[in-house]
Amino acid sequence: MENNAILKTENLNLYYGGNHALVDITVGIRKNRVTALIGPSGCGKSTLLRCFNRLNDLIENVQVDGTILFNGRPITGNDMDVVDLRKRIGMVFQKPNPFPTSIYENVAYGPRVHGIRDQQRLNAIVERSLKDAALWGEVKDRLHASAMSLSGGQQQRLCIARTLAVEPEIILMDEPCSALDPIATARIENLIHALKKKYTVVIVTHNMQQAARVSDCTGFMYLGRLIEFGETGLIFESPRAELTNNYITGRFG
Amino acid sequence: MDSDSFQRSREPDIVHRAEMSDTPVQAHSVFSGLSLAAGYAHSPFQSGIAALRDPGRLRESAMKHLWFSTAIVSVLAILLIIVFLIIDAYPIFAAVGVYDFIAGRVWDPAGAAPAYGILPLIAGTLLVTFGAMVFAIPLGIGSAVFLAELAPPQVRAVAKPAIELLAGIPSVVYGFFGLIVLTNWLRITFDIASGETWLAASLLLGIMALPTIVSVSDDAIRAVPRSYREGSFAVGATHWQTIRSVVLPAAISGITAAIILGMGRAIGETMAVIMVAGNAAIIPDPITNALSPVRTLTGTLGIEMGEAAVGSAHYHALFGVAVVLLAITLAVNMCARMILQRIQERHEGAAGAGYGPIRAGIDLIRLYTPIFLLIVPSGLLAVAADLRTAALALAVVLGFFLLRERVSPKISQKIAFGLITSSALIVLLILGIILFDIISNGLPALSWEFLTEPPRNLGREGGIGPAILGTLYLIGGAILVALPIGIGAAIYLNEYTTEGRVTRTIRAGADLLNGTPSIVFGLFGFAFLVLFLNLGVSLLAGQITLGLMILPTIIRTTEEALKAIPDSLREGSLALGATRWQTISRVILPSAVPGILTGTILSIGRAAGETAPILFTAVVFSRRLLPTSVFEPVMALPYHLFILATNVPGAERNQYGTALVLLMLVVGVYLTAILIRNRYQKTVTW
Questions:
Q1: Which positions fall inside the ABC transporter domain (chain A) (predicted)?
Q2: What is the pLDDT of residue B403?
């Protein structure tokens, strides 16, 4: 299982000032699979996710020790081109965060910043991304309307389309459904299923049923440690650690 | 039942204020009713309690009315200003005609055949302001981007207050620096007879407008939600692409407001302009000749008001000038207000409304970028080096601009960040040069005698003791006038009312007062206090004029302090059965003291440095004795510096000494305010 890991961490430690937020995380994320990270609030699952695209760089006082390998190459060094890294590892956030421009502009933003200016190519990318994000049918007649006029679920799918438009290898999702209603959540979950044909997905979620429904592998985190990691079926049916068992059976969390 | 309805009628506002639902209100009233009933049952002094309660009620209502009356002072003041200006300007409008007054090309009120055409003055004001903006907008936005996006926290912690300090330097000190250093430098650089030119005035006003532009833009940029930045970073945009395509467009309304506010400051400035603009009432020929002297509306008032005989056509013409000036500044400030309001509405009702302005914002950015990239560096170079270097630089920048589609994002980020960082460095360098010049030349003049003695030989010798004391008297009086009124108005606005027409009117009054040029306050003080109320040129007239001028600052900062106090504190006190006024006086005001203190100190700084409002109301150049009553005129530091610098040759040492003392006074006051703010920002988190 370690061999075809597209993303690997070895003894990863992260400190927010004096706070030891991630402790000795060693994990391998497999290609074209959906990996879920679960655990109670503050367990470090979002922090771990943000290590993968170096978004923690934006926060002051963060110190990272250990190795993260993306396609076998370390990404934690100062010489790493974080812009290129983020192009190849996209991210969808907890709250939909479309830019306050049109639907079209939101999706075209990524390709544009990467130098694509040809209008027809842009149109094609926008259409493909919106289709892949299962949003095309709903917005194809009003591509130039404000992204803010969409519903929350639509906005989140727009953010997914925005991520798909730059054709990343991995998509990180940080509790992408926590601000959505059940119907919108179901659509995003279906979308995640479809995405794994082309992409590798890592999803952080609060919702254990969601992890069970969408993921192939699951990691359970607690107080900054990765307690258990394995096939989703195994984790949920016969967890090895007692903590995991207590959490998924709802005794705390 | 009785006590219940009594409670309702007595404290109806609480209900609005806390926006409680119906049920808790009833619970609250019932609770009070119960406790009252319990009091009746227990107490043999029931009649005593009732009597004690009554004065309490009276006090509550008296307090409310008292604060209301303080709140409308600013509205009355701005109305009085407008009325008095128009009354005194009416004769000239009637005699010359409004159109000929505004469009007339000759201003010569003291000539054999007096001419009252203010077109050259309007042109002067507009040209000087335009020049100032060409210089200040790119530097200001660049510095704001540097502070908000690029500066490491430690650099920001120093650079931000340093740039805010620029705002604290009194305009007469800027004028003095401009007169001694800037005009001299221009005279030598361009080999012209006098450096007192449109260019000098624009450079100086640009510097003076910078802190406003930087501060407000910095706030606007930092208010852009972090999620926008993260969204952009997450698709692999570079930092500069994120700033250019996401952050700046989202902050564009705030930046535009910053520019307009900076413009307002430049249009309304008097003393600095008088000292460096040359003051010839001509339209530059050709109109692009930046080395021509110009005269502004404000400058005209500052220069001629002291010479015009009261009641003469000249006198009325000057009030006509003031009306035009007030109209221009108020229009500019209203624009800023409307834009800021639109932003607020957009932040509140984010859905759907955001698209139009942002689109416009992106277009505006596209407009600003070439200005930033082309005009400024070349303009600066043309001034600093020579035309050939400037042309070369222009070609390089232009080439980059045309090729930028092909330049890799990383290279363009390097270039952009280089320009942004250098703009912040330029601003800090300007601050450094001004401070160094004043301090290094002023220190030798300082001595105990200089600080305490009265001036001799027209100020060339002796000291500035009476001027220092006079300034302190003026400040003290202004604070005594403005503090109770300002705090009262803020209390009324924030604690006693809900948002509505009344509060909007009062806020509009305060905003308009805030946007009124200081020289207009001076004119109003002269017409209303000195002449109409017959106070004469006196300490009292100056104190009241300055007090009105700083009133809006005190209202605004106090209101902000009150707003920062969470409603839970109010509810906590009210739930214990405290009355509205008890809650305000014992819980709210003590918690708001740091904020109020900051506002007061900032106002002191402003009052200490202002010259224009006291020019015709309170000051004399030389007076050996201290005033024995508030009805006598006083000496004041800024005015003393102004006269020394413009009218007394050979007083250089004492000029610098006076400038340094004034600077230390004002900067010391501002530093105190900044320290208080930083200290409480750290310790108090609601």
A1: 7-248
A2: 63
